[in-house]
Amino acid sequence: MALFEEEMDSHPMVSSLLNKLANYTNLTQGAHEHEEADEEEGSKKKAITSPQMGTFMGVYLPCLQNILGVILFLRLTWIVGTAGILESLVIVGLCCSCTMLTAISMSAIATNGVVPAGGSYYMISRSLGPEFGGAVGLCFYLGTTFAGSMYILGTIEILLTYIVPQAAIFRAERKEEVVDALLNNMRVYGTCCLILMAIVVFVGVKYVNKLALVFLACVILSILAIYAGVIKSIFEPPDFPVCMLGNRTLQNHDFDKCLKTEVIDNLTVTTKLWSVFCDGPDLNATCNEYFVNNNLTLVQGIPGLTSGVISENMWSEYGPLGMLVENKKLSSFGGSDPTKDIYLPYVVNDITTFFTLLVGIYFPSVTGIMAGSNRSGDLRDAQKSIPIGTILAIATTSFIYISSVVLFGACIEGVLLRDKFGDSVEGNLVIGTLSWPSPWVIVIGSFFSCCGAGLQSLTGAPRLLQAIARDGIIPFLQVFGHGKANGEPTWALLLTAGICEIGILIASLDSVAPILSMFFLMCYLFVNLACAVQTLLRTPNWRPRFRYYHWALSFLGMSLCLAIMFISSWYYAIVAMVIAGCIYKYIEYRGAEKEWGDGIRGLSLNAARYALIRLEEAPPHTKNWRPQLLVLLNLDSDQGVKRPRLLSLTTQLKAGKGLTIVGNVLQGTYLLKDAEAKKAEQNIKSAMSAERTKGFCHVVVSSNLRDGVSHLIQSAGLGGMKHNTVLMGWPETWRQSNDPESWRNFIGTAQGMGQ
């Protein structure tokens, strides 16, 4: 509650807290403004009030809500069972360290001068320049959009697997068709859910805003239910038995008793399980060899915190697609034909598992750290709230993840942990079996949490794209800057829904998660890289006041981001880096319409200074000689270039190598000819661009033309980058004897160079 002290003002703590919670919103500032515009309905805008949100409501809670999500509820138990407790802690530590280091860099940006309203994109782009700002902004946009796909897929997975499985449209006739049927159901229901959410966002974000507190409550109550279940398991573990045949785990869907036969009225009769493994219900039916040779055993799925199962879950259990989930402690006799096992109700791996895959699947669960900075314009003191709130939110969620890894490994049987969809416990959500008072608390809580996260992604991503488009730094995106009369980003929402549909058509949560991991990692990498470079170059406008920031932390964060990218998926990493690099070079090539000052430009200045000093250290060798041209151009009375083809000759002479300085001399005094000199310089640059001549332009104003040319020849260039050749046009009036002035200037210039 220390974070909430600044928001108490003069009100009592309880009433102030309740009032703030009642008005809680997780929308970005732009979305909030559009909501207000909807409510005004054309009337005059209300008087602007100063931002009143503090650290707790403005940064801490939004970050907490965005970080905790679908991976925690649907995949963390499976990750712990597959990777083991030790390697799971490595995965969590690696990812949480990456976001913590990025948060420190974000804190440096937030304390570098006045924090602009408009969220993370505005804050980064105005601090780091349009090139880095655009690259970070688009990576953040793509990551947020694919996050929307992931949350929608999570919502549909919870709906069809745990809430209403009978609602499935596609049904599998055979066991090997189950995965395909599930993916097709995810595609159909996911597309319908996306359309519904897009309509809600299009109609008005105020409807999303009204549910923000509900979504937050779902996340918090679900976390509390998990911890309550862990405590209860010490005294009274929940009853979720897992049926084992030999050492193999059985899917508990088609039978109600873990028995081969039972005695009813002194008669031995077969059970439903017998009919699954045998060709009939009769006692003399032909049965599966492994079923005959092995006994059925009931294993408690949740033995409890004090059961000692933690020692068995320490190590990893990776395996290929179709590998049986087995308990090594139980005895197993004989084998069976693996080609026939796919038709039997065993719990198996639905994908090939390995450490690097799990890193890519887990990383989205630590994203969302920019949720607080997205509300920079709503914060009373953004320079204080963003660093404290974001770092404390990451510390809180890191504790939740680390403790969850240990507690899941200490409370849940290994075979149940590796059962991704809870098939061995009658289709219950595995994390729900541990929760108290009921598994439905987690199922319903995670369902609404995923719904809310999906809506927030579809609300925030279009506004981010709209902000990038309106800045004009990427010309072909400008169409997405337009929208409804109140500024609602209609076209951006359509594009976002289209990209989101790509993720939904992939249909697998495990396949979409590494994709969005790449874009978020690229975004974090750019933030860390930019902060480290600006510090090392001592950029004048880079003066962060965050006391715990150091360039080494940013460099470590950048290295960690790069390492996790290639650990997760090297080919996805290369694609993401190519996309980000193309965005950066495109913005640099086309030139941004708006210039906010690029701190990274200092890198070019330092490199140029270093190169010039090195050139001065020794005279150039003959092998390194190349034409360094000073081109003297004539201008007409309107300061237009008379002989632009001279520039083409220049390009051919130096073959794209060496230095080119294009100069001109204007007669007169500088105070009177200042405007003409600037116009002449602009015209020369335009001619150089038209003739594709790369070089520099230098216009000199002198009282005497001959002296001006002499000064230009002597002073042009810098250090080792000086001209060794002068190129000038032959006098136009050489046939006319009545104009000797041009001849005198030409001959005088030639003599001056000869001397």
From TrEMBL:
Q: Which UniProt keywords apply?
A: Cell membrane, Chloride, Glycoprotein, Ion transport, Membrane, Phosphoprotein, Potassium, Potassium transport, Symport, Transmembrane, Transmembrane helix, Transport
Q: What's the protein's topology in the membrane?
A: Multi-pass membrane protein
- Keyword Ligase (UniProt): no
Transmembrane regions listed in the UniProt entry:
59-78, 90-115, 135-165, 186-205, 211-230, 390-417, 491-509, 515-536, 548-565
Q: Which reaction does it catalyse?
A: K(+)(in) + chloride(in) = K(+)(out) + chloride(out)
Q: Provide the Amino acid permease/ SLC12A domain boundaries.
A: 59-232, 348-630
Cellular localization per UniProt: Cell membrane
Domain SLC12A transporter C-terminal intervals:
643-739
Tell me the protein family, please: Belongs to the SLC12A transporter family. K/Cl co-transporter subfamily.
Protein name in the entry: Solute carrier family 12 member 7b
